[in-house]
Prior knowledge:
Shape: globular
Number of domains: 2
Number of helices: 12
Amino acid sequence: MIYLDYQATTPLAPEVREAMLPWLDRFGNPHSPHRLGREAGAAIEIATLQVAAALGDRSGKGRLIFTSGATEAANWALRGAIHQGPRRKIVTVATEHACVLDTAEWLARQGVELSVLPVLPDGLVDLNAVAEAIDDRTALVATMLVNNEIGVIQPTETIARIAHDAGALFFCDAVQGFGRAGLPLDSCDLVAISAHKLHGPKGVGALWLREGLDWPPLIHGGGQQHGLRSGTLSPMLCAGFGVAAKLADERHAEDAAHVASLFAIAETLFSDWTLNGAPVPRYPGNLNLRRTGVDAARLISEVREIAFSAGSACASGSGRPSHVLRALGLTDAEARSSIRLGFGRYTTQDEIERAAQLINQAAVRQLEWA
Length: 370
């Protein structure tokens, strides 16, 4: 099968698998004082340094706390921000991931003021609207770096500056951009990342917190991870995350050139389709396309040789049009005629060419029988 759903998850890197396998048998609790425990603890410490370095923190500018994934990290960031002082307002964007929007809406039901900013037809937020929404009541501004559905890159550094000028914190969901797009870490107060989006294992992510933030604990118990998230960590998952992050850091230029070349080929092969979202700035490993009259769900079921999607894996099966595409101003019909092709490190040119042939042929058949 040709795998073109890199935004949903990525293939496990061979180097990551190799790093994880020994920890199936090395069972020591990483928080125990004996040798087995210390060895496991050392593996987690190495992984912490590797992930932090890939983020851009090589000098201890913040604390990296391992979580079960980015959804947990985002929930913790938004809920924790409301406990920082008297400010009771959150500002975010309509195209954010559900883990941010749903948490923000839950907080709104608890009495928190919420401002969800619209985006322009290209998927980028209007900076004038950002400046107008952020005020002295704002506790946190939450903006995604790279959109998981359409790949556009938000001006996070500028948004963070506007937030800080108003005395608010800035949280960045960097899941899709980590290791791929430039993250302005110095402008961030909190960052959420996930291992399985960059060829690491599922079940582990992290929240990075700028040094000096007095953050409320997420889980109480044994006091692990600076007393912020108690519980026994998995050396296997953390070690895998560390190696995945290290690889992404080392291979950044090589991976970027490869993905850019695939994007250029795909653009030509899908010339009958319309690109959803701004062509720049964009992460080129995300190609979200629409073609009038095509039923994306039917297309996915017909072209079984390819793994691709119609949007976020989190919302698949809901039957609802993508909230991201609707935020761009697309009609329900246009949203339902859109597909997302995600590719990366292990995708070949032959796979892109074959996928384009199969998808285009199936689309033409649909249109002929419409």
